[in-house]
Amino acid sequence: MKSTVRAAAVLSAAALVMAGCAGDDTGATDDAAGSNGVTTIVVGASPVPHAEILQFVQDELAADAGIELDIREFTDYVLPNTALAEGELDANYFQHLPYFEAQVEENGFEFDHFPGVHIEPYGIYSEKVESVEDIATGGVIGITNDPGNQARALDLLVQAGLIELAETDGDPTLLDIAENPKDLEFVETAPEQLAVSLQDLDAAIINGNYALEAGLNPAKDAIVLESGEDSPYANFVAFRSQDADDEALATLDELLRSDEVRAFIEERWPDGEIIPAF
């Protein structure tokens, strides 16, 4: 049976891991609803903006649609997919297609996904300079060690005129930098650590959600910001392939890509920090 309906809870990633170690069985195992006809969906999400958007759905839309969201927050990009695969979650909402595909290929996850909900423009940030032209020769640049986003970061550096990449058959990595006229040094680190390391770097390329969590406004604080137009990086809800026909998950997706959610995103992030993808 699905887990008993209860108020949506926002738990930390650490709490989720502890619950998983203790044999938590809150994840749904079939399509049955609770005794009052409301179906609980356990969803893993990054705190910003994903959990905020889900909380809006829970507060404003879920009850009328017959679902209840149990929102679990994660502060990294690894555990949400692991928890989904292990059945601790019914779905997760934190990733874009290139990352999703890389994770599925690397780990053999049997996952599927709905269309995109929102885009988080990637940005180059600095506490030392106000433009990329001012980055000194030999400057130290922070870049994600996540293969699904490193290619995206490198593309942004190309757009900024800082590097050129060699032709590759797949996604480029740091090894594919063909020209580096400023002799920049690239330091790879976990994506969640880039914002907190910014003071020690000349610049860093930071995911939109981690920039927002660190109090940065991508639309105002980035010295170079990725365009959201025709972006392949829309974030979506992912789920196990075996649940492809789950009506409650389909309902969640419909609510997330509704006019009400579009209005919420545009009002909550009016400067384009987060962009609706539908």
Summarize the structure.
The protein is of the alpha/beta class. It has 2 domains: 13-120 and 232-276, D-Maltodextrin-Binding Protein, domain 2 (3-Layer(aba) Sandwich), CATH 3.40.190.10; 123-225, D-Maltodextrin-Binding Protein, domain 2.
Description:
Helices cover 32% and strands 21% of the residues. It has 278 residues and is of the alpha/beta class. The protein folds into two domains: 153 residues, D-Maltodextrin-Binding Protein, domain 2 (3-Layer(aba) Sandwich), CATH 3.40.190; 103 residues, Periplasmic binding protein-like II (D-Maltodextrin-Binding Protein, domain 2, 3-Layer(aba) Sandwich), CATH 3.40.190.10. The strands form four sheets. A five-stranded mixed sheet has the order 2-1-3-13-4, sandwiched between helices. A five-stranded mixed sheet has the order 10-7-11-6-12. The protein has a two-stranded antiparallel ribbon with strand order 5-14. It is globular and about 65 Å long.
**Main β-sheet, spatial strand arrangement:** 2-1-3-13-4
How many domains, in number, for the residues? 2
Overall strand count:
14
From the spread of the alpha carbons, the general shape counts as: globular
Distance between the termini: 33 Å
Percent helix: 25-40%
- Protein structure class: alpha/beta
Largest sheet: 5 strands, mixed
Q: How are the SSEs placed, and which strands pair?
A:
Layout lengths: L12 H9 L17 E7 L1 H14 L1 H4 L1 E7 L5 H7 L5 E6 H11 L3 E3 L4 E2 L3 E3 L14 E5 L2 H13 L4 E2 L11 E3 L5 E5 L13 E4 L1 H6 L4 H4 L2 E2 L9 E6 L6 H10 L2 H10 L6 E2 L2
Parallel strand pairs: 1-2, 1-3, 7-10, 7-11
Antiparallel strand pairs: 3-13, 4-13, 5-14, 6-11, 6-12, 8-9
